[in-house]
Amino acid sequence: MIFWLSVIFCFITFASSTPPDDPVKCESGNTICTVTNSYGAFPDRSICEAAKVEYPKTEAELVSVVAAATRAAQKMRAVTRYSHSIPKLVCTDGKDGILISTKFLNHVVRTDPEAKTLTVESGVTLRQLIEEAAKMDLALPYAPYWWGLTVGGMMGTGAHGSSLWGKGSSVHDYVTEIRMVSPGSVSEGYVKVRVLSETMNPEEFNAAKVSLGVLGVISQVTFELQPMFKRSLTYVMRSDSDFGDQAVTFGEEHEFADFLWLPSQGKVVYRIDDRVPLNTSGNGLFDFFPFRPQLSAALAVVRSIEESEEAFADVNNKCVRGEQISSFLFSIAYGVCNNGFLFTGYPVIGRQDRMMSSGACLDSHQDGLITACPWDPRINGEFFHQTTFSVPLTHVKEFINNIKALVKIEPKSLCVLEDSNGVLMRYVTSSPAFLGKEEKALDFDLTYYRSKDDPLTPRLYEDFIEEIEQMAIFKYNALPHWGKNRNIAFDGVIRKYKNANAFLKVKERFDPSGLFSTEWTDQILGLKGNVTIVKEGCALEGLCICSEDSHCAPTKGYLCRPGITVLMGCPYSIDKKLPAPRTPSEGCCTLVRTIGMKCVCEVITKGMEATIDMQKLVNVAAACGRPLAPGSQCGSYRVPGA
Ligand SMILES: Cc1cc2nc3c(=O)[nH]c(=O)nc-3n(C[C@H](O)[C@H](O)[C@H](O)COP(=O)(O)OP(=O)(O)OC[C@H]3O[C@@H](n4cnc5c(N)ncnc54)[C@H](O)[C@@H]3O)c2cc1C
Predict the structure, then answer these.
(1) Which residue ranges form the domains of the chain, and what is each CATH number?
(2) What are the FAD-binding PCMH-type domain coordinates in residue numbering (predicted)?
């Protein structure tokens, strides 16, 4: 049975699919436009507007677009063919901005097989990049798993694959030169083209490697490649009993290691994936099943099952489905085929260009939406939140054990992550890029149900996912992926980057009037305002942390409760047995401020009071700028001084 399933699913690679829609739509020609992302929804569900979209086809055209907009003091943002980022990175503020599309900046500029370099325009997709490199028998060593991303977009958000080896798994760390088109002064003709590299201008180069699009438009990028090699891949499913320890060491043992964790099933799928010589026999192909075209009708059925599970709180069905999905995907090796069309067993050995990334649903044969990418907003398919953060390797064991502790409290709670294939976990390393990763870390990718039309109804086990999200971001100082996540993951994010000031100085130099900056980029860069949006039900969409009942869904039984996270974030300040530090840590105060002491006090039980020094907790609240009113109640403790 499994054999035939594999045959069927390897063949499906050749099926056609309606390509994704253009994210930019205009009322007349290229003017009066709207822009969204590939899912059709930003975290706050708004649609962004722009006065017009420009489609430069050469660097010279790009230069004149930026010059004209600078001269007119118009806001600008680069937009890509698919616009994959979840947050509002692509939006210009208001209606008067200009979108500069890189859709037609998609050519190879130069190849140099001797030097093993490849120079491309920034709208080139990862798929093209991989193919062009392979024509010279060269390979990009590490990359995201989805090949629809563009070079400019990957550099915009620090996209990565999985590895602790070499310079790590982030694409921008294999870049040797960047050509950047930014606003210029009157004497420069309102535009400036800079050529950036490690040797010529390291500060500017390290800022441009992960730029969030605020430095200007990247025109061209040169990659340093490696001689083509093959990989040998085996997936193994094991119990997660020793996962905390394994997660710390596995990445040193295998070059392309990653994990799919199924916490409610108590299982982990280990990806044992290593480089082997090019003459090793094998013609494997990784065509990841969830990235293949899917029948829209089938997706609609699955979606309606999901919706009914949510409506009837049918967690049992969710868990059963999660198990079925994970064992099905494991049985077909996630879409890996030994010879391009058949999975016959492990190891699967294939060239790097055939094994590293995939995305068959992008293939453009219009079929009237009979098939599509599963998340295509034009069909009734997948719609989800994605929370993605890198936890420093030094905290990974503790973090995993904390998640396991949550599963112990409610064993079925994390089934909500398993019907989206489980938690994908990938290795990243520290990068010289100012807004790149700060240290060796494990990146956790959590995908979970989002309601299409009812954002004010709580999801199944919403509080458990929020607990994990807040624990990672605030307690373990995890870095959110710039191109994924809901707003709260970016709360205070810039303080986590030691080179943030160096980045901001380059930004000031490249774009002193902030024409490429927006409300969102100012918020995440800590320049103006805050990423959180406080309104009724805001916590349900990750726009705020629930610090009052109205932020949750009080009429639907979801109250202000996640204050327990604060206690996990402040152990050294409130533990009865430990000497309290003179001032609470920044992480502890961030939690106190965002969650609110009212919530904290509401969740404290007698059991907790046995280990918490309540006077210390009162002191922490005051030191963090959220003092408790004298005479008020915190758990069973009465705050002194009334
Ligand atoms: C199915 C899917 C799979 C994914 N898999 C991975 C993965 O394996 N690993 C990973 O790390 N991420 C992954 N992502 C997320 C992805 O890395 C980011 O969202 C990525 O930035 C999107 O690339 P894009 O080309 O669509 O860029 P966009 O989302 O369109 O743009 C991202 C940012 O870059 C800026 N930008 C784009 N081009 C330029 C340019 N030429 N000059 C200056 N600024 C520019 C934009 O203004 C914007 O700020 C995935 C996303 C999806 C939808």
Answers:
(1) 14-101 (3.30.43), 233-348+365-495 (3.30.70.2520), 563-638 (1.10.110)
(2) 46-228
